[in-house]
Amino acid sequence: MQTDFLIVGSGIAGLTYALKIANKFPEKKVLVITKTQADETNTKYAQGGIAGVWDVANDSYQKHIEDTLIAGDGLCNMAIVEMVVKEGPERIKEIIEYGAEFDRDEKGEYSLGKEGGHSENRILHHKDVTGKEMERALLAKLNSLPNIILANHCFVVDLITQHHLGYLVTKSTPDITCYGVYVLNLHTNQIEKISAGFTLLATGGCGQAYRTTTNPKIATGDGIAMVYRAKGKIENMEFIQFHPTALYEPGVSPSFLITEAVRGDGGILRNKSGEAFMEKYDHRKDLAPRDIVARAIDNEMKRTGTEHVYLDCRHMNKEKFIHHFPNIYNKCLSIGIDVMQHLIPVAPAAHYSCGGIKTNEWGETSIKNLYACGECSSTGLHGANRLASNSLLEAMVFAHRCFLHTTRGIAGIQLRNDLPDWNAEGTSDPKEMILITQSIKELQQIMSDYVGIVRTDVRLTRASKRLDLLFEETEALYRSTRVSPQLCELRNLITVAYLIVKSAEFRKESRGLHFNTDHPDKAKLLQNIIL
Predict the structure, then answer these.
(1) What pairing do the DSSP bridges indicate for beta strands 370-372 and 344-353?
(2) What are the C-alpha distances in Å from 164 to residues 43, 176, 190, 482?
(3) What is the pLDDT of residues 368-406, one digit of tens each?
(4) Active site residue 290
(5) Are 501 and 462 in contact, with CB atoms under 8 Å apart?
(6) Which residue in 6, 120, 146, 505 has its CB near the most CB atoms, within 10 A?
């Protein structure tokens, strides 16, 4: 297959880009591929909302910029922060024009929420399912454009570069170019090649590298792993954000998210003794940035010997709570928790990757004709810790900028007709799937035990050694068996886990989401770690 524009991933980043390109070039082919259903994305599970300077009477660009920089703990790119904050409101207006509905107050004005790290109310939301509403609006708009092909159940195995044409490609190769991708078509169980003029990776995060995560099963770091294998640049993978308040349900994965907006509306964190403990850790109490709150909860759990703390909403207005958080209210009720009478058990869970595929201000990666946006990218916005509700904003701003940049370069693109077929010679069907599923469990255990909220040099060394063994076993399996989604996801998770561990080992300081008790100070202010 050949296509002018190839988008891998159907979340807010990929769909925003696809819509803009399809509108601009109605004569061009735009192909969006996703490994499951089109709406099964990280976007769908985003509860809180999207941050933007809306109430100009009380808020300002400068306040949003400062909040983002403070949360990022010294590692944000100032120019990128300013750009995203100032361009963001226009992108929000666009998705409203597409049909996305955000909650309004009794006067008809948008109801703006407040979350941890924000100095003002600036979060637009749709109940507690904002991402799902934005995804719905984008997919509805997408279906009205005839030149967009949406291909479900297609798993991208690898990027096609000069390497597949027989050339030696290394990290120092100056002109690595992406010509398309190899895709495992799950309808036919065959690997097909797609030649593309421009390829955009919008593949989401990597929360499944951990045992407990708010991310869906699809969040296996596929785009990040593919770029690393293609010798592209990856940065800041040590900064994995743990959401402080996932509903504590032993053995349930993914974990149900209790959005930060609940604390923004007055929810209070308490330990097993009923004490409101956040005032001991930060003057902003329950609305401190996520890295601080997650470490505080982790410390309380270890200090008291419990596996969770509690979120207290009993003092909140019931009618207002149900109106704003109907999904959370009903979920808690389904497991016997009436939030107006009972405390909600919560614990941190892996939530968001602040690092990823290194891009510039236009979403360009270090590989020619390859762009990245959304959670799989590292743009410089988040630094060492993402400010709440900045992720959907970043995805939309950079999708627009990727659109602008590819529009300028489309005239010089030529599709290649000499790409080799996938070589499956010497492989056979896997005899035991247990080899794959058990390895995934081992990897998640390693990452959760050794590379979690609090780290040490010894833990990182242990993780590295155990990942080496998993890598060797999995590569041997990959060479001898036919490709399957499960095997590809395992390979990708091992690659992402390796990148997280190596980045964490290189950073000899504690900053933002990376806290190492052997290096507790911020003495060095290391710059971005690129692998």
Answers:
(1) unpaired
(2) 33, 11, 18, 19
(3) 999 999 999 999 999 999 999 999 999 999 999 999 999
(4) yes
(5) no
(6) 6
- Give me 324's structure tokens: 């704003």
Encoded tokens for 426 = 């010497």
Structure tokens at 25: 């070039």
CB 347 within 8 A of CB 308: yes
Q: Is 522 exposed, middle or buried (0-12, 13-18, 19+ CB in 10 A)?
A: middle
In DSSP terms, 344 is beta-bridged to 311
- Residue 235 dihedral angles phi and psi, to the nearest 5°: -140, 155
Q: Which residues of the chain have pLDDT under 70?
A: 426-428, 430, 523-526
Write down all domains in the chain, each with its CATH number in brackets.
Answer: 2-238+354-412 (3.50.50.60), 250-347 (3.90.700.10), 434-516 (1.20.58.100)
497 burial level (CB within 10 Å; 0-12, 13-18, 19+): buried
| Sequence-separated (6 or more) residues with CB below 8 Å from residue 236 | 75, 354, 355, 356, 378, 384, 503, 528, 529
Going by C-alpha positions, the residue among 303, 268, 304, 306 that lies closest to residue 288 is 268
Tokens encoding 368: 């020619």
Q: DSSP states of 450-505 as a string?
A: HSSSEE-HHHHHHHHHHHHHHHHHHHHHHHHB---HHHHHHHHHHHHHHHHHHHHH
Burial class (CB in 10 A: 0-12, 13-18, 19+), 218: buried
CA–CA distance, 102 with 136 (Å, rounded to integer): 13
Which residues have CB under 8 Å from 252's CB, separation 6+? none
